Amino acid sequence: MTLAICSRAAFARPQLEGTTMGFGLKTEAHFNAAHFLTDFQGKCENIHGHRWRVVVYLYADTLDTSGENRDMLIDFGVFKKAVREEVAKFDHQFIVERGSLANDTIACLERETFSLLMVDFRTTAENFARYFYTRLTSRGFGVSRVDVYETPNNCAIYYGPCGGPHDGSDASVVHMA
Ligand SMILES: [Zn+2]
């Protein structure tokens, strides 16, 4: 299997016309979880839940030329499995930004056997999009874009260097505990 890793230099911005046309794949998964936003003046400062929908796009300029994946960007099954694995970590968790709850609060929640997942980022849809981009890229996937929907109408997008509206800057790494 050849994972399609984009050439940043040549494909910083896929074009609809011209010489930099290529191929894309898209798959999605979702997770249900609770969170709250620290330092936010509004409803989202309180604990609430979402059905986060995560849509991942791959991009490649060429397809595999031999073997069982000939004329494919990548085996869909491999792609779908990886996305589901990354997303599943968050399902039915209370996602908490590290440092945003007092230690005794955490101890109480854990005593009640609630399942907390501590992360090192503010739990915005933008940061989740960047997180999934970083995770899947580190696994060798040529991710061009990740969409994270908090609601059916509200979506944050992270563009990688090989798929974004910008040329240049590398994706920042978001670490999860
Ligand atoms: Zn929210």
TrEMBL record:
SUPFAM superfamilies: Tetrahydrobiopterin biosynthesis enzymes-like
A Pfam family matched in the record: PTPS
EC number(s) stated in the UniProt entry for this protein: 4.1.2.50
InterPro entries, A to Z: 6-PTP_synth/QueD, 6-PTP_synth/QueD_sf
Gene3D superfamilies: 6-pyruvoyl tetrahydropterin synthase/QueD
Pathway given in the UniProt record: Purine metabolism; 7-cyano-7-deazaguanine biosynthesis
Enzyme class: lyase
Superkingdom, taxonomy of origin: Bacteria
Catalytic activity: 7,8-dihydroneopterin 3'-triphosphate + H2O = 6-carboxy-5,6,7,8-tetrahydropterin + triphosphate + acetaldehyde + 2 H(+)
Family: Belongs to the PTPS family. QueD subfamily.
Protein name from the UniProt record: 6-carboxy-5,6,7,8-tetrahydropterin synthase
Source species: Fannyhessea vaginae PB189-T1-4
